[in-house]
Design a protein that fits this description.
Layout lengths: L30 E2 L29 E6 L2 E6 L4 E6 L2 E2 L3 E2 L4 E3 L2 E8 L2 E8 L5 E7 L6 E8 L8 H5 L2 H13 L5 E7 L8 E4 L12 H13 L8 E4 L18 E4 H10 L3 H11 L2 H10 L14 H5 L8 H12 L6 H12 L7 H4 L6 E8 L2 E8 L6 E8 L2 H20 L9
Antiparallel strand pairs: 1-6, 2-3, 2-11, 3-4, 4-5, 4-6, 7-8, 8-9, 9-10, 10-11, 12-13, 12-18, 14-15, 16-17, 17-18
Length: 431
């Protein structure tokens, strides 16, 4: 989707920057490598309940090209690419002949008889090009905005006005002695030049129910592709029922439940039955991890079902980071991974969230938010959107350690961001 399709942001982003380099047309040998997404790092984190981010050299430059119906991901250090769209998924593919020059990655790979010739700037908000060449068909040229994590600001001067918030959040994080914590905040309104700031943005705690956002996006992506419809039904059996959060566990089974109700309950009630049924419906962990990998979100993985204690004991766990969460939320908001209709539906589900003891509880009554919580005995999270008109913002507040004190840390971070946004002297500019 293009920026012009956005409905919710109060101001449009600047037009993508064009990088006028000649097209490189090299045909290269390739090798197909891992296709199931990022792997969990070995070893334990330095903080209880926190896993180290999977190793990646600090100089790695990763970006992905957003075009209608799909993405094309590039890792310029690892020399790998991935095409994932409505018509197929190449998996992560090695391109040893990739050329990186003047901040642009270019090359060509052939997978299953289809050639993918690409030219992708490694700077977000630029415009990239992908040519798909199939036998006996005219080549298809796809263009779109390049997405990085973080995206660069559209206005660095306005963006600099958000920097003091980093210091305020850092003080909250430092005070949380029992809870390793991280926060990432991205302006979506243009008031702060679409700037992103973070404190411990790479913190990698257990994802808890925040991972359900990726499950929903993968489902809605298939709706956008016309592969499924939300009024399609799924048979839910007694064997699918688990406890924890949710409403479906209290119903009588077997029964057919529509995808729309599963998707809505997944977010509104953080329904664990809906999550597990949708994981099975989508084809297991691999498709969700393929979505994560195609967006170059290296800290996030779906590795077990909800309330699967046996898997957790085997070390199979779901993880994420504040930076990855905001990467997803930003791409959804900007129409880079979902159509406007699916984006609005997802945000609508998040506005209906019934677990409101964190972000909403920290803000004055009536402040519009759309959010998703995550809770485990050793993790407490809340992530989503502040929908204050003219100051729309994506936020991710994640903690490890005891849930009770983590809840309070999340509330303090949430209120710190709100106070900054609505205080003219430090945050929003009087108009």
């Amino acid at each position: 989707m293009r920026k012009s399709d956005k409905k919710r942001s109060s101001s449009l982003l600047e037009a993508p920057v064009r990088v006028p380099l000649k097209w490189l047309a090299a045909t290269v040998a390739l090798a197909v490598v891992a296709t199931t997404g990022p792997a969990t790092a070995d070893g334990q984190g330095h903080e209880p309940g926190v896993e180290p981010t999977p190793e990646r050299a600090p100089t790695s430059e990763v970006s992905w090209l957003s075009f209608p119906g799909g993405v094309f991901a590039v890792d310029s250090l690892g020399h790998t690419v991935r095409y994932r769209a409505c018509d197929g998924d190449t998996g992560r593919v090695a391109d040893p002949g990739m050329r990186v020059a003047a901040g642009v990655a270019s090359g060509a790979v052939v997978v299953g008889g289809t050639a993918y010739r690409y030219r992708v700037p490694l700077v977000g908000r630029a415009e990239g090009t992908l040519e798909v060449i199939q036998r006996h068909r005219s080549p298809t040229t796809l263009t779109g905005a390049v997405v990085t994590s973080p995206q660069p600001p559209t206005d660095p001067i306005a963006g600099a006005r958000l920097f003091p918030l980093s210091g305020q959040l850092a003080r909250v994080v430092a005070d949380a002695s029992l809870n390793p914590a991280g926060a990432t905040v991205r302006d979506l309104s243009g008031r702060y030049g679409d700037q992103q700031i973070a404190v411990n943005g790479s913190l990698r705690p257990k994802a808890a129910s925040v991972i359900k956002l990726w499950i929903l996006v993968e489902l809605l992506r298939r709706v956008d592709c016309g592969q499924v419809a939300l009024d399609d039904g799924v048979l839910v059996t007694p064997e699918d029922v688990v406890g924890g959060t949710g409403q479906l566990q209290f119903e009588t089974f077997p029964q057919v439940v529509t995808l729309h109700r599963l998707a809505r309950y997944l977010i509104k009630y953080s329904d664990n039955v809906a999550a597990n049924v949708l994981i099975t419906y989508l084809g297991g962990f691999a498709p969700v991890n393929a979505l994560i990998d195609s967006m170059n979100q290296r800290s996030t993985i779906l590795a077990r079902r909800m309330l699967d204690s046996a898997a957790a004991q085997r070390g199979e766990e779901n993880y994420t980071s504040p930076d990855d969460v905001v990467s997803l939320l930003g791409a959804v908001w900007d129409g880079e991974i979902l159509t406007p209709a699916s984006r609005d539906l997802m945000i609508g589900f998040m506005r209906e969230q019934t677990l409101n003891t964190k972000i909403p509880a920290a803000l004055p009554p009536g402040v519009p938010v759309a959010h998703k919580t995550g809770d485990l005995p050793d993790a407490s999270h809340d992530v989503g959107y502040y929908l204050i008109p003219g100051t729309e913002t994506a936020v991710a507040f994640l903690t490890a350690g005891p849930m009770a004190t983590g809840d309070e840390t999340v509330r303090r971070m949430a209120r710190t961001v709100y106070d900054f946004l609505v205080t003219p002297s430090e945050g929003a500019v009087e108009e």
